[in-house]
């Protein structure tokens, strides 16, 4: 039975600033069947200590600096990012809803013309489509006004215009669809 070599002894953690001693692997006299054991040294890597204190933050350049009366200090006023208009987004949502409901007016008006119920069902949906279209028009106009008065701090003018146009198209499609549905139901 061969004798096991002793385990290498690792040093304890050195105090801060001192170099840790490098451990030496003990050599074992080679036997007839073994080649000589190579010499090696391992240098342990100590973890780096993180830097104390807050991390630096890069702020945008101030828009203006106002002096604080009676002190040598100043107040830096930072610019705010642009915001999107919620009124404009609501205008687009109601305008698209008006167009979709006006398509239902046309579908029910044309499908129910033969049995005679088309004008009644189309009229119920036409009321909803006309109200949504009017809301899209009014909200689109209010959204454009809000963006204009915000003096460049608000975005969404294109969304407000799209909502206004969709609301007008939905309003007109629903009104014309209701007229066609009533005419087809009365003629049947």
From TrEMBL:
Region Disordered: start-end pairs: 1-51
Alphabetically sorted, this entry's keywords are: Membrane, Transmembrane, Transmembrane helix
TM stretches of this protein: 92-111, 117-142, 163-186
Compositional bias segments (type: Low complexity)? 30-51
Where are the compositionally biased (Pro residues) regions?
1-14
Q: What is this protein called?
A: DUF4190 domain-containing protein
The root-end lineage is: Bacteria, Bacillati, Actinomycetota, Actinomycetes, Micromonosporales
């Amino acid at each position: 039975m061969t004798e096991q070599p002793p385990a290498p002894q690792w040093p304890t953690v050195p105090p801060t600033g001192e170099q840790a001693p490098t451990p030496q692997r003990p050599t074992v006299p080679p036997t007839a069947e073994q080649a000589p054991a190579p010499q090696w040294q391992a240098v342990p890597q100590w973890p780096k200590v993180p830097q104390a204190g807050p991390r630096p933050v890069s702020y945008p350049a101030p828009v203006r600096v106002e002096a604080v009366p009676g002190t040598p200090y100043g107040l830096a006023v930072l610019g705010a990012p642009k915001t999107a208009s919620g009124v404009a987004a609501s205008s687009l949502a109601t305008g698209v809803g008006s167009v979709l409901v006006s398509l239902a007016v046309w579908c029910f008006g044309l499908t129910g013309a033969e049995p005679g119920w088309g004008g009644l069902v189309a009229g119920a949906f036409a009321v909803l489509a006309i109200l949504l279209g009017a809301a899209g028009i009014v909200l689109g106009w209010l959204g454009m006004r809000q963006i204009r008065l915000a003096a460049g701090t608000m975005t969404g003018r294109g969304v407000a215009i799209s909502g206004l146009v969709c609301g007008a198209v939905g309003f007109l499609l629903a009104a014309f669809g209701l007229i066609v549905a009533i005419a087809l139901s009365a003629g049947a």
